[in-house]
Every structure is written in structure tokens, then in C-alpha cells.
Specification:
It catalyses: ATP + protein L-histidine = ADP + protein N-phospho-L-histidine. The protein is an alpha+beta fold and 639 residues long. 50% of the residues lie in helices and 18% in strands. It contains 15 helices and 18 strands. The strands form four sheets. A six-stranded antiparallel β-sheet has the order 7-6-11-10-9-8. Helix 2 packs antiparallel against helix 9 (311-339) and helix 11 packs antiparallel against helix 12 (444-472). The longest helix is centred in the middle third of the chain and has 72 residues, at 341-412.
């Protein structure tokens, strides 16, 4: 409401500012209260919803773990009554003798091992232990008077004895199940089984579950947190403490009270409790708050309590409160923004103009960047073409180098090859002259034999020249090669070597390996083998005993061929230079230093490898690793 203009004119300027300031402060206070109210509402609703969800999930967890505890307790209930069926137990209770006691001790020991319990023992009507499964141990129960135990007093009266306590002899906690052993209608003794329940605690610890079981005295006997074990969940009176101390149920434990820092009822059997952090395990954390839910266990006076941590729910509640306050703040800001809409319109128009200008500049930069990228792409394509051309040139150079290596090998063996051809030629000359004379004399049988020998010599010369021709022709990267054919061709080519005549060749192929097919071109495999065998012959040239081993090994999809000689071996200083181009240890002009380099290159081109080994017994071994050729199925003749 505005004041009349006439009145405002008569007020001093300083007085006209104060009502506006008061209205502004009041508006800020109201908005702040509204934000806090929304935050509190979000906190309250989120807390109720979160606790309800945790309670529902806790009920399921409580039921599941209660069933697990009940199952763990009841799975041994049959065991004490089982001893009533054993004849030796009955005889021992009626007439105790050392012999019968030893029989029952052995029986109880075996039964205890098979059942997984802590101990099984038999008491007479006076409460003295006659036989026990731990009779071998120093802490044996044998001969002890346990008549003061509540489970014995119940069982000797014909009631099932159920008792949790700490052993007075071993100090080990356990759950005792007792049963009165009858002879007819008369109880003549008591059978007791002591079982361990700490597997439940270990299971809770692995699942990171906060839970504990309290017995009929309100003492925690099982707990996932060891610090809460054997503490009272409610105050114990002096009479109760005296009774528990006299019964030795909990040995000499002080039975301190488990005192939470705070406890608040949430209704429906739910409570919110807080415990101080353990200074040993949680030295840097504050108190822990839990949602406590309790359920009685069937067939026992025990109760299972589940503690569900609330720290995650508290964080979620605070987050929801902040979100609610933030949403309220956002709505307030939107309201103020709508109130200032007229001023914002002008700002938006100016911003739109600036945005259009920036957009135009951005489009121009994008166009420039696109042109740069296109130029870069063209340069990359040109580089790719150059690289492909370089690879093609390199491959051609490699092929030329391979061909040069072949011709170099043929040139090195030219003298031997000429010798191999001169011998048949000289024989041909002699046999042809003799054949003419024998024909003139009419000795047709001798002439026919000479002609047959001439044919064999011509075939031999043809095989030599055919091998040279096949070895010298160019090959490609792709193809298949027969290992047996390649070895035979390589041996035929090097048979003119001076040391070949005295060579002892060993072929150590397993059954069926000689005809293996390899994924490499035939002449390239032959060239590799010629290089390796010729190098081996050169290395053994100075020794009379020359032996060469060709051994193969099938390795699934690959084949390993080893060429090993018994030569002097390769000196250690030159081993690392074996596969370098133009490196050779041969004197004079006997080698170009390209044989091993080309062989390794040909193996690598076929997706294989060539490596060298130096056996301790001497010599040199080269191992050729090549992929096996893919066996294609044969086409049907009717296709």
C-alpha cells in the first residue's frame, strides 16, 4: 500500500528510506524461514521414509538370520539321543569297567570327529563324566563332576537340556545339548554334546552384519562385534549376579552392562541407539547410530538383535533436506527473476545480439578449421601414397635381393655344379664312342647297355639343371611348400659341395611329418634350406666327421624345423652379428654375408621366424618356425 504523495512530501528523505529497508529485511527473513521450513519438511519426510525402508529390509534380514541361528542350533539335537542306541554306552552306565570306558571313549571320539562338534561325553546319574571324546587331551572332562550344570539337572529329570556356557575346564564357550539315557523307563545317565556356534559370528563378520544373540539372562553370547560379547543388555541385580557366578555358566567373566550413549523409541518395536566408537578399531570416528530390531528365536529363550547402521540414511536425509531447501531457494529465485522480467528482456536482447555475433565468428572459425583439416587430410593421403610406393619399392628391392642371393649361391656352387655336369659329359663321350664301335662289331647287347647308361646320365643332368632352374626362378610371398620336396631339392643342389660326399645325414622326423605342408612359397623354403645346409657344410669343412641333423616338431598350427651340425660352433663375439647384412666369417670371396639375412627375411615374410641356438655339446642349431598351410576341404566330384 502506497502512502499519499502529499504526506511523503512533508517527510524528510531519511525517514522515507527506513520503511523500505524494514520491508526488505522482513522479506528476507520470511524467505529464510520459508527455506528452512522446506528443508525441515524434506528432512522429516526423508527420515520417516528411510527408517521405514530400513525397517522392512531389517525384518527380512532378521528373519533370515534367525532361521540360520535356529538351524545351527537344531541340527545337533538328534545327536545326544543317538547314544541311547549304543549297547556299549548302556553297559558302561550299568557296570563301569576300564575296558568298556575305553570302548565308549573311542566311539565318542570318532562320532565327535564325524559330526564336527566340540565334545561328546556321557555322565552317570551323579553327574560324573564316565566317557568323553576328548579323553586323549590334557583338558579332558573324564572324571569331572558336572552335576551343578543346569543342562544335567534338566536331562536327569527327563527334560531336554539346553544350555549355553563357558566350559569350566577348557574355558571354551559352547552350546550344550543334553539328553537323559533310559534303560526301560529309568534314566541311567546323561549324554551331552557341546557344539560351537562361532561359525555364525564369522558369517556375520564376512557379511558385515551388526547382530548379536542374547540368552535368557540377557547376556550376549554371540556377536559379530567381539567387544559386545558376554555383556548384559540390561542391568543385572545382585541376586542374579550371585546366581550366575555360582553356576559358572559364564566362567569368571565380569558381565559388564552394554550401555548405549542414547536410546530412542521409534514405535512398532523399533529403537534408535547410539554406541561409542571402539578406540582400538575406530580411533578417528564418532559415535555410531543404529536401528535396533529384536526377534525371539524358536525353541529357545534367546533373542536375536539386528543393528542396522543409520549413517548412510542420515546422509541421505541431510541430502534430501538440502535438496528441498535448494528447490525452495530456486523457486524463490525464479519468482524474483519473473519480477525482474522487464529488465531481463533488454539484457536478453543484448545477449542475443552478442550470441549471434559469436555464432558468426564461430562459424567462420569452423569453416577455417574445416579447410585446414581438408588440407591436412590431403597431405596425409599423399603421405599414405608415398608410404605405399615406398613399401612397394622396398618389396621389389627385397625380391631383387632374394634373387641376387639365389644367384650368389648358384655362383658359389658353380664349380661344383660344373664338376657334376662334366663327369656325366665325359662318360657320355666315352659311352657314345664305344657304342658306335660295338654297333659296328654287331655287339648289340653291349651297345644297348651303353645306350641305357647314356639315358640315365642324361636324366641325372636333367635333374641337376631342373633343380637349378627351379631354384633360380622368382617366387612370391604367398604359396604352399612341401617340406619333403624342399629338403630333397636343397640336398640335390648342395650335393656338389666338397664336404657333401662324407656327410652323415640324420632325418629325425616323427611319423607323418615328412609330407607336411607349410604356408610359404616352395622356392623360398628351398632357398632357406640351401643357405642353412651350405653354411653347415662350410662350418664342418675342416673336420673329417661331418654330421647334420634335420629334426621337425609339430606345434599345433605351426611347424618347427631344426637344422643342427656338429661343427666347431660360432664364436661368442660374432653371434650377435649373424643376421646383419653383409656380415660373414668366411674368408675371401666365399660369402656375401646375405644368406642368413635373406633367410630370416623370407621366414618373417611368411609370418615365421629363424632363430639360432648354441647347444652345450657343440655345433650350431638353426630353428625355422613357420605356419602350417590351411588344409582346404576337397571339392565333391559331383559339384
Amino acid at each position: 500500500m502506497q502512502c499519499p504523495v502529499i504526506r511523503l512530501r512533508h517527510l524528510p528523505p531519511a525517514l522515507t528510506v527506513k520503511p523500505r529497508l524494514a520491508r526488505l529485511l522482513l522479506l528476507i527473513l520470511l524467505l529464510l524461514l520459508l527455506v528452512l521450513g522446506c528443508g525441515y519438511a524434506g528432512y522429516y519426510l526423508s527420515e520417516r521414509s528411510g527408517i521405514r525402508d530400513l525397517a522392512e529390509n531389517g525384518e527380512r534380514q532378521l528373519e533370515l538370520n534367525a532361521r540360520a541361528v535356529e538351524s545351527e542350533i537344531t541340527k545337533y539335537t538328534y545327536l545326544p539321543s543317538l547314544l541311547e542306541l549304543d549297547y556299549n554306552v548302556t553297559r558302561l552306565l550299568q557296570t563301569p569297567t576300564p575296558y568298556r570306558r575305553q570302548l565308549v571313549n573311542d566311539f565318542l571320539e570318532g562320532l565327535n570327529q564325524r559330526s564336527g562338534s566340540l565334545a561328546i561325553y556321557v555322565l552317570d546319574r551323579s553327574g560324573r563324566v564316565l566317557a568323553t571324546s576328548n579323553w586323549r587331551q590334557a583338558s579332558s572332562y573324564l572324571g569331572e563332576d558336572l552335576s551343578f550344570r543346569a543342562y544335567f539337572q534338566d536331562a536327569v529329570q527327563g527334560k531336554p537340556g539346553r544350555f549355553y556356557g563357558i566350559g569350566s575346564t577348557t574355558g571354551e564357550p559352547g552350546y550344550y545339548l543334553a539328553h537323559g539315557l533310559k534303560r526301560g523307563e529309568q534314566i541311567i545317565g546323561v549324554a551331552v554334546v557341546k557344539v560351537r556356534l562361532d561359525s555364525l559370528e564369522q558369517r556375520w563378520q564376512r557379511a558385515r552384519l551388526e547382530a548379536y544373540v542374547s540368552d535368557e539372562n540377557g547376556i550376549i553370547i554371540l556377536s559379530s562385534n567381539p567387544s559386545r560379547l558376554l555383556k548384559a543388555i540390561h542391568p543385572l541385580g545382585p541376586n542374579t549376579r550371585e546366581r550366575l557366578a555360582r553356576s559358572l555358566q559364564y566362567h569368571w567373566w565380569a558381565l559388564e552392562e552394554l550401555q548405549p550413549l542414547s536410546r530412542r523409541s521409534l514405535g512398532n518395536g523399533l529403537e534408535q541407539v547410539s554406541f561409542a566408537a571402539n578406540p582400538q578399531t575406530q580411533p578417528l570416528t564418532g559415535p555410531s547410530t543404529y536401528l535396533e530390531q529384536t526377534r525371539p528365536l524358536d525353541d529357545t529363550p534367546w533373542h536375536l538383535t539386528l543393528l542396522t547402521p543409520l549413517h548412510d540414511q542420515k546422509r541421505a536425509t541431510f541430502s534430501h533436506a538440502l535438496l528441498a531447501a535448494g528447490a525452495c531457494t530456486l523457486l524463490i529465485v525464479l519468482g524474483l527473476a519473473l519480477n525482474q522480467r522487464r529488465k531481463v528482456i533488454a539484457t536478453r536482447l543484448a545477449a542475443r545480439e552478442a550470441l549471434e555475433k559469436a555464432n558468426n565468428e564461430l562459424e567462420q572459425r569452423i569453416a577455417e578449421r574445416t579447410a585446414d583439416l581438408q588440407a591436412s587430410n590431403q597431405r596425409l593421403q599423399a603421405e599414405v601414397r608415398e608410404r605405399q610406393q615406398a613399401e612397394t619399392t622396398l618389396r621389389q628391392a627385397q625380391d631383387e635381393l632374394v634373387q641376387a642371393g639365389k644367384l650368389a649361391v648358384i655362383g658359389q656352387m658353380s664349380t661344383s655344379i660344373a664338376h657334376e655336369l662334366n663327369q656325366p659329359l665325359a662318360a657320355l663321350r666315352t659311352l657314345s664312342g664305344n657304342t658306335v664301335r660295338f654297333l659296328a662289331r654287331g655287339a648289340l647287347d653291349v651297345a644297348s647297355s651303353n645306350l641305357h647308361t647314356i639315358g640315365e646320365l642324361v636324366d641325372r643332368m636333367g635333374r641337376i639343371t631342373a633343380s637349378l632352374r627351379a631354384f633360380a626362378r622368382r617366387g612370391g610371398d604367398q604359396g604352399e611348400a612341401s617340406l619333403e620336396q624342399a629338403v630333397d631339392a636343397a640336398l640335390l643342389l648342395v650335393q656338389g659341395h666338397p664336404g657333401f660326399n662324407t656327410l652323415i645325414l640324420h632325418r629325425d622326423y616323427p611319423q607323418g611329418h615328412a609330407d607336411v605342408r607349410l604356408a610359404i612359397e616352395q622356392t623360398r623354403l628351398e632357398q632357406i634350406l640351401v643357405n642353412l645346409i651350405a653354411n653347415a657344410l662350410d662350418a664342418m669343412s675342416a673336420q673329417p666327421d661331418r654330421q647334420l641333423w634335420l629334426s621337425g616338431r609339430d606345434d599345433d598350427t605351426r611347424y618347427l624345423l631344426c637344422v643342427r651340425d656338429n661343427g666347431p660352433g660360432i664364436p661368442a663375439p660374432v653371434r650377435e652379428h649373424l643376421f646383419e647384412p653383409f656380415f660373414t666369417t668366411k674368408p675371401g670371396e666365399k660369402g656375401l654375408g646375405l644368406g642368413l639375412t635373406l633367410s630370416a627375411s623370407l621366414a618373417a615374410a611368411a609370418s615365421g621366424s629363424l632363430t639360432v641356438h648354441h647347444p652345450p655339446e657343440g655345433g650350431t642349431a638353426f630353428e625355422l618356425n613357420l605356419p602350417k598351410a590351411v588344409i582346404r576341404p576337397e571339392s565333391s566330384p559331383h559339384a
